[in-house]
Amino acid sequence: MKILVLNGPNLNLLGQREPDIYGVSTLADIESMCLDTGRDIGVELGFAQSNHEGALVDAIQGAPGTYDGIVLNAGAYTHSSIAIRDAISATTLPVLELHLSNVHAREGFRHHSMIAPVCIGVIGGFGATGYLLALRAMANHLGADR
Ligand code: DQA
Q1: Is 99 a catalytic residue?
Q2: Ligand 1 within 6 A of 122 CB?
Q3: What whole-number distance in Å separates Cα of residue 19 and Cα of residue 100?
Q4: Residue 10 Cα: closest atom of ligand 1
Q5: N vs C: which end of the chain shows fewer Cβ within 10 Å?
Q6: pLDDT tens-digit profile of 56-106?
Q7: CATH number at residue 74
């Protein structure tokens, strides 16, 4: 069982980017925490991050065959990208929408998600811990939870 943790624009800046909203953990810190959880639940992980919409589409298209599910923090593309939504609709893999912050407690433009209707579920508002919750939720969805 292998899960892709895919991060979108500006998430490479975690740790220095608006830490009051997104926390002080870097993306590398989060990936390391994810690997610990992956070991706990017996799931292999892969990681990718891009600031580019098309690269995220490519990552989603390329995941079947290597991965069984995708945990996706699409960043701001969550709220705007029909291309990413279409890639999720087209893939055979389950995709979980993830956010560090509680987008519903923030600006109005963050309240709408283009991708939520084509994802298996949404986790947000729990900071870096959300990644670990998302892995457990995806593993459970895939039937691999221990
Ligand atoms: C985010 C929320 C988005 O609205 C924002 O554009 C991000 C990060 C989050 O993890 O809270 O870049 O996806």
Answers
A1: yes
A2: no
A3: 11
A4: 12
A5: C
A6: 999 999 999 999 999 999 999 999 999 999 999 999 999 999 999 999 999
A7: 3.40.50.9100
